[in-house]
Amino acid sequence: SDLWTSPHSQNAFLSLTAQWWETSEALGEGGGTSSAREGSRQPGYRRALLGAEILSERHTADNISEAIGRLLDEWVDRDSRGFLVTDGGSNMRLAATKLGMERIPCAAHLLHLVVKDALGLGETVSRDANTLDFQRLLSKCRAIVGHFHRSPRDTHILRGKQTETGVPEHRLIADVSTRWNSTCAMIERLVEQKSALIAFFQRNTAIQVEHQLDHEEWTALAQTVEVLEPFKKHTEALSSDTASLALVVLVAQHATEGLAKFLGPDSERADLLPAVRALVRRLQNGMAARFGDDVIRSEPYMLASMCDPRIKGKIAEASGMLADCRDSLCRRVEQLQEKRGTLPHARQVGQESGTAAVPDQPAPQGAPLVPTTSKSWVMELFTLVAGPSSGSSVDTGQESAEAMVKEYLFEPCEPQSTDP
């Protein structure tokens, strides 16, 4: 759920969307039969806008929880509400508590804050020399873009230079201070148009002193694009219709390891300019602050990774949390069994859910694969936990939660390209 204020009407809108997996059972008999190939619905991801309404009252936790509660009551039973994903606003956090729902922080929003602060677009900006140099470079970029947006004549001349230098005839992009990806897009477009812009400034010396970038500044922009590119792809992956909580830990791990490669002792990027190296350090600090152990080692994210058939127990084991996560998963399965009336009546005496009946062993795994640019970005993330796709299943002949979890963990992991 989120709040958005229209810049034109000044109305604040509260929206509520739902995401779920629709099973064959929910679709009725024949959900996956030949009738599905003839146009009927098949099992899979579902998402829907449950409602959007104007929130004219103050944006307090009480008003927000009351509005969300009304929307939920129209669609979802109180026992089936699941969890609520929100930004980090204190009013949204408290609203989730008042609704009695488990709140999960929006990972895309956390990532947005990490990069926004690192670029100096947040409320607090570091005053060190390298950060101030980077801020001056961004101001210079905005001056260049603003000049061409205000001058149809020079835009026409630039278009001619684009043709002469063979670069795409794209318009320069102005950034919006509240959206770091727009700043990244502005820089990317300037780097793309470098040869055309240099040719333009060489011909128009009257504005050269005010706007032209020197060689080091062009290098800094190109290096900034390289540093931010993974964050752009991570944001797109987390914002996709089929994104799952299991991606969050992988994104945090991939982003952190990627930044370390720029500054590590074995880094091949000794050519990074001081301002860009300072940017990398700010990104590292932001990742540590916003994606710390209290977030990525939290139960929702760990259970989500356990339930992803491409990962299973690998992340939990690497984090030293396999036993705890396994026990928690057993409890969740038992809760669902009880709710559905399928909880086994007999248990072994003295055996509690998730105890020694389920070994502390994940599915078999091997050496991680090396990411390649030919894979999709999400598939590249899964190479962090890649292992063999073969193994032995365990036929327990039982239906207890312990037995189901045990069999699941011992089954082979699915290939990276599998729809979880």
Write a structural description.
This protein has helices at 24-27, 34-37, 61-75, 90-98, 107-118, 129-150, 152-165, 180-192, 194-203, 208-211, 215-238, 246-263, 274-290, 293-296, 299-307, 314-318, 322-340, 377-382, 401-410; strands at 2-5, 12-22, 44-54, 83-86, 102-105. The chain is mainly alpha-helical and 420 residues long. The strands form two sheets. The protein has a three-stranded antiparallel sheet with strand order 1-2-3. Helix 4 (90-98) links the parallel strand 4 and strand 5 (102-105). Helix 3 (61-75) packs across helix 4 and helix 11 (215-238) runs antiparallel to helix 12 (246-263). The two termini are 24 Å apart. Mean pLDDT is 79; it is low at 29-39, 346-375 and 388-398.
Largest sheet: 3 strands, antiparallel
Could you name the ranges where pLDDT drops below 50 across 5 or more consecutive residues? Answer: 29-39, 346-375, 388-398
Number of helices: 19
Task: Provide the spatial order of strands within the biggest beta sheet.
Answer: 1-2-3
Task: Tell me the strand percentage band.
Answer: 5-15%
Task: Please sum up the structure shown.
With 420 residues, this protein is mainly alpha-helical. The protein has helices spanning 24-27, 34-37, 61-75, 90-98, 107-118, 129-150, 152-165, 180-192, 194-203, 208-211, 215-238, 246-263, 274-290, 293-296, 299-307, 314-318, 322-340, 377-382, 401-410, and strands at residues 2-5, 12-22, 44-54, 83-86, 102-105. The strands form two sheets. A three-stranded antiparallel β-sheet has the order 1-2-3.
Please give the structural blueprint:
Layout: E1 2-5, E2 12-22, H1 24-27, H2 34-37, E3 44-54, H3 61-75, E4 83-86, H4 90-98, E5 102-105, H5 107-118, H6 129-150, H7 152-165, H8 180-192, H9 194-203, H10 208-211, H11 215-238, H12 246-263, H13 274-290, H14 293-296, H15 299-307, H16 314-318, H17 322-340, H18 377-382, H19 401-410
Parallel strand pairs: 4-5
Antiparallel strand pairs: 1-2, 2-3
Helix pairs in contact: 3-4, 5-11, 5-13, 6-7, 6-8, 6-13, 7-9, 8-11, 11-12, 11-13, 12-13, 12-15, 15-17, 17-19
